[in-house]
Amino acid sequence: MTFSFTYEPEFQRVIPAVEIDARASNPAIRNQIGDVIKSFTDGKVALVTDNVIVYRIETDDGNLGGYFTVQVSAFVQFSPQIFGLISKFVQSGQWQADYLT
Known about the structure:
Elements: E1 3-7, H1 11-21, H2 34-46, E2 52-59, E3 64-71, H3 79-92
Antiparallel strand pairs: 1-2, 2-3
Helix pairs in contact: 1-2
């Protein structure tokens, strides 16, 4: 099975969907009432700030497999290297090997 990662602008719907679907494996919300689950998922959505990018994980069939987040500010110390890679890409039109695929 293969997966794809897609930027998810509607993370307010995806994050609760994934968390609710996987609630049986999460001790914080396993066998809890709706108010507890809603509070938990609202807390997860609230963690997404201006410095966070949410990606949807989909199977090759198009089914939702999960999500992950990238905190952009974590890369600030590497910004000169990242900028260098982007500049090379823009100039050459070729990208280096992608470790996620």
